[in-house]
Amino acid sequence: MTGCSATPVSREHRVALAPWEVADTRLGQWVAEQAAPQEDTSAFALLADGRDAFAVRALLTARAERRLDIQTYLMGDGLTTRILLHQVLLAADRGVEVRLLLDDIGAIGQGRRLASLDSHPNIEVRVFHPLPIGRSHLVARVLATASVFNRHHRRMHNKLWIADNALAIVGGRNLGDEYYNASEPRNFADLDMLTLGDVVTPLSRSFDLYWNHGLAQPVGRFHRAAADAWQVLRDELAARLDDEEKTDYFAALRERRDERDRNRLVDDLRWGEAEAFWDPPGKPGYHHTPALDDTMAGQLWRRTTPSEKLSLVSAYFVPTEAGSQWLQSLARSDVDIRVVTNSLEATDVPMAHGAYMPHREALLESGVELFELRVRHDNPDEVAIGVPGTSASALHIKALGIDDDMVFVGSPNADPRSVWWNSEVGVLAISEGLAADFEALVKEGAQPTVSYSVELDAEGKLAWLTREDGAPVKLEREPGNAWRRLNAWLSRVLGLERWL
Questions:
Q1: SMART domains in the record, alphabetically (predicted)?
Q2: Half-sphere exposure of 319 (CA within 13 A, CB side)
């Protein structure tokens, strides 16, 4: 069965939209209007609030006229996904060409729905780096992958949402309620960046490279559906949405979308220059560890060495010994370094936190500031770093602020998995206005009502400083339950750092 797991190479290419085709769309015309008085060639807006991120995606889908390209790692089955898929089907009904590229891990157990989408004449669905067996359930997939783990643990982690090749969203959000503040009890604090202008062209090119690569296979090779299955799916989604229309969250989403529709797509656009980065699409299929220069991380590292300041926000911060030494050397060279990541109590991957733990003392001694997001906020009625305080929260942001004029937002975490194993995509923006917006977000995330400030006390031991009920609190024991501590300990004992 393992010998039969290879899939044939797909060579179904599609011609990119010509500039005049983009300019002839409503979105293309809106972009031209925004750019007319500007000297810079690209514009950006940070989408930190989950409902804003959802509303912008829904509006781009509703306004698209020619093409909609969606690339994601995971796709859940919650309210937000159902709304977006219904919008996608409506867009396809009016003639929009839709391409959905999903990592095969995200396709497990979703064969019927994906095949139904693919049955629409204007929708194509492809899965990236697929296995033809073990597709019905995650347990079956794990068993099927056991004999080929060295290759199939490498995944396509990219996230893109591109409408008419005129505007693109890049960032950390997958498709699922927890990314749009719609889940209970846990939501992710995440970040996207809306981009328009010249930088959209290379982002669109990156999507085409992945779409046309041999690792991207039509879902119809693995799952079949009737010719009219898309109509059944559309009706099912509409019926479920009718039942959910009166929920508070649905009403809030509709209000947010209507507000964005009446006014501007986003509140403020920041203008500047930009560069798109992505890993080669064949990276998840490698049988070897790539050279750093051949990875997106290597390209970004050469481009973004800070001279004054570095703000790093990452859900999973696994610096490794080499990365830790680099950060320490920067800090000792008077570069202000601030890292915001998850605490042990908040992270959804305690093993990744376990690989970060051994580096904390040395980083703090060199002058690096460490902040770890709390699972609950001290101000339940406020929105902090994109997550309502009334819900258990975890960080999912992947972003960098370099000096006072550069911001990188994308799909990679600061960990070995993003460097060596998974494929990633992101945008480096050069814009003082955007950098100021990002620094405000980082400052918000580092507040003592939101995060623990990790410090060394007089005896050189770690302490976690925060505020609760308006009073300062010092914890001498790392917050987190016994199960999380066990997972963190196992990752260190088993030496899993390289794989996290």
A1: PLDc
A2: 23
> At what angle are helices 248-262 and 79-93 packed, to 10 degrees?
50
Q: Locate tokens 């051994």: which residue?
A: 358
The active-site residue out of 24, 40, 198, 403 is 403
User: What's the pTM value of the predicted model, to 2 decimals?
Assistant: 0.95
Domain 288-499: give its CATH code: 3.30.870.10
Instruction: Print pLDDT tens along the chain (500 aa).
Output: 444 444 444 455 567 888 899 999 999 999 999 999 999 999 999 999 998 999 999 999 999 999 999 999 999 999 999 999 999 999 999 999 999 999 999 999 999 999 999 999 999 999 999 999 889 888 888 888 887 888 889 999 999 999 999 999 999 999 999 999 888 778 899 999 999 999 999 999 999 999 999 999 999 999 999 999 999 999 999 999 998 887 887 887 788 878 877 767 888 899 999 999 999 999 999 989 999 999 999 999 999 899 999 999 999 999 999 999 999 999 999 999 999 999 999 999 999 999 999 999 999 999 999 999 999 876 655 666 777 665 678 999 999 999 999 999 999 999 999 999 999 999 999 999 999 999 999 999 999 999 999 999 989 999 999 998 889 999 999 999 999 999 999 999 999 999 99
Domain boundaries, the chain: 19-262, 288-499
Asked if domains 19-262 and 288-499 share a fold, the reply is yes
Q: Is 157 an active-site residue?
A: yes
Which of the following is catalytic: 86, 120, 159, 353? 159
Tokens of 378: 């001290």
At 75, list the tokens.
């796709």
List 129, 398, 415, 437, catalytic entry:
398
Q: Work out the number of other CB atoms within 10 angstroms of the CB of residue 231.
A: 15
Is 293 tagged catalytic? no
Residues 424/370, Cβ–Cβ less than 8 Å: no
Give DSSP secondary structure letters for 316-329.
SB--HHHHHHHHHH
Q: Is there a catalytic annotation at residue 288?
A: no
CATH 3.30.870.10 fits 19-262, yes or no: yes
Q: Out of 157, 213, 353, 359, which one is annotated catalytic?
A: 157
- Which of the residues 164, 192, 378, 437 is marked catalytic? 164
